[in-house]
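Suppose you are handed only two things: the residues of a chain and a line of SMILES describing orotidine-5'-monophosphate. What would the bound structure be? This form records exactly that question and the answer produced for it, so the two can be stored side by side and reused later without any lookup.

QUESTION INPUTS
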Amino acid sequence: MANLSRADAAGKVMVALDKPDAAAALALAEQLRGAGCWMKVGMELFYAAGPSVVRELKSRGFRVFLDLKMHDIPNTVRGGARSITRLGVDMFNVHGAGGLDMMSAAAVGVKEAVDSGDAEHAPIVIAVTQLTSTSQSVLNEQIGIPGQVEDAVVRYAKLAREAGLQGVVASPLEVAAIKNACGTGFITVTPGIRPRGADTGDQSRITTPRDAVTGGTDYLVIGRPITAASDPAEALDTILKEMTEA
Ligand SMILES: O=C(O)c1cc(=O)[nH]c(=O)n1[C@@H]1O[C@H](COP(=O)(O)O)[C@@H](O)[C@H]1O
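ANSWER OUTPUT
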């Protein structure tokens, strides 16, 4: 694999804007503007600041991944997908645990919003598999799913593909198995990224930015290693350097 350019590396990074309000999130986004990375809006920010913070990020030129992990009955997810598509995000996720009909309903909701002319483009829709905080023992002993984490992840990935979704969220450790099962074009979005020596926190299935790139992931979701750094722009810069040297 040829080395990534800095611009290509930045285009693979999704910064998790896990902040309590729009002001804090936009101030952080502003520090990172120009690098060319995506912004991920998750529950903490969206539940506090709502759609307007997404519109603001879009108006500042960012690509936005809206991470609300929808998990509900198919009809509700279909309506949620219509609303999110109208909002104009570039990517959003649903939870694979909702099953085939629920994931298919998300794809239908996107199509309805686009076909009705209420949305300019169709976002990429992906499914969460097993959260990167879930360890092998948590999967087997707490959640009660037997077998290897990787097998559980691949099972969700195949279901997501069957439902017409474009990819999954998983750990970078599972990328090869997912691509093997679902094809190289099936998108992998991988949190659980920790530069060497960084605090693991609540993450369990992790790798470094370098190993994530070498492992062939499409997108690296990175939060605290950037957002909790004393200089987030410098932390992002160091990560991008590591990615280009992978
Ligand atoms: O869907 C996600 O983005 C997600 C799925 C998953 O399995 N694990 C996971 O960490 N995430 C998100 O990715 C981000 C990781 O943040 P850090 O652990 O701070 O790097 C958080 O915003 C999580 O909500």
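WHAT STANDS OUT: The mean pLDDT is 97. The CA atoms of residues 191 and 221 lie 4 Å apart.
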